[in-house]
Amino acid sequence: MNRMLGIGGMLFGMATTVVCGAQTGGQTGGQTMATGTPVGAPSADPAIAAALAGISPAHVQTDIAKLVSFGTRSTLSSMDTDLPAGQGINVAADWIESEFRSISAQCGGCLEVKRDEFTEPGGNGPQSRIPKPTKLTNVYAILKGTSADKAAPWVLVTGHYDSRVTDVMDSHSAAPGANDDASGVAVSIESARALSRLKLPGTIVFVAVAGEEQGLNGSKHLAQLAKAQGWPLVAVLNNDIVGGDTTPGELMQDKTAVRVFSEGVPASATPEQQRQILSLGAENDSPSRELARQVAELAPAYFKSTARHAPPAGPGMARSHAVLLVPPFHPVLILRRDRYLRGGDHTSFNGEGFAAVRFTEWRENFNHQHQTLRTEGGVEYGDLLKFVDFNYVADVARMNSMMLATLASAPGEPQHVRVLTTALDNNSELVWEAPAFAPPGTTYEVVWRDSASMLWTYVQNAGSATRIQLNVSKDNVLFGVRSVDAAGHRSLPVPPLPARQ
């Protein structure tokens, strides 16, 4: 949560120190210090991998087609009484709730299904997109963790189920919203199907929010609810426009890549905290950016290259014996909060101090979002089902589920992480406290990278110690400390703040 937002502070008394991997009590004198090893390839959790294998493009297609069938899902339609039967956002909310309840029934009632209903006040200002008091409904399902410890981590996945046409105030015209954002809602629902049978220590919340197109209203209300109720959210994954556009003739779409947007300086940082972040060069170590970084580091464990035969050289010709290697599905980290002139529901959670990122397809087709259905100049406009790649959405759901299950299995994040700056030298000493949720067998890793690198390059296992000395100049690298459970599930890394003992 607000890990990079703490300011200074005194350190705690004697801590166990690790030097060259061996634990010793107290200070280490002149002993040789640990130097770390290159970060290796991550390993997949067999139970998580099996759950991901069950994610179905057919289920994704069914979910998106059902949402499209409601005609319009304009948030404003919740107040309309003249819509045809079975049309509008209210029936869409009812269906999402029923789908979560159906999934829960299949896992013995494992999901607690809820509606977050509220009235958004109307406004007459030039920027207002809600002209009169309007009912909004967020629908969500909670997969409670097995741990009785209230500090066990929570993670959340969301998409928005409202849709729009060119005129955002039009609540009656057909607004299928297949890609924007029935695709993201399908990710949330399909993740619930895949993960609901797992027994994880932490809690997962599967969400579909309303009001995104009118101004992030639904996510803002839910983020404030999470903050007020003290949800220990360590990660929020927002999926918006993850349909993998299939427009005929589109040659620049990359079906192996999904963008992951993350904020640098946290939206909730105070001016003093912003100054400290800038002085430390920590703009790329916000909680949200650590979350995005971990998506990129963990993906190779669950997504592999595939091989396929090259197509024939021409019609009527024999099949080629050449084999093409298809790159694995992978995230591409975009180092900004969102796209130009655009916003998303992760921003609402960023504003409340939560780590949150946005998943979006590699290349958007703006003819197929925020458009009234029509054909002009031979171009078909509108967010239609036929422009969605259900296999691509399933891959995005797998990547979300990978992160949800991993973080819900991991210990909490180390607390009060500091790098000692008492002396001017070329070494580094880091200290921290155990997380609030540290199951038996919890150990710690220190990771670091050059200041020009995006991903961690070196790691040093600290065992159960809460202090480590490294033969690495603190001025040349960026550090993080993360918790690891006995099965190898890792928390998000926490970067240290400078402190003098």
Automatic annotation (TrEMBL):
Domain of life of the source: Bacteria
Subcellular location: Secreted
Keyword Protease in annotation: yes
Fibronectin type-III domain mapped to chain residues: 410-501
Keyword Hydrolase: yes
Any one GO MF annotation of this record: metalloexopeptidase activity
GO biological processes: proteolysis
Listed name of the protein: Fibronectin type-III domain-containing protein
Species of the source: Granulicella mallensis
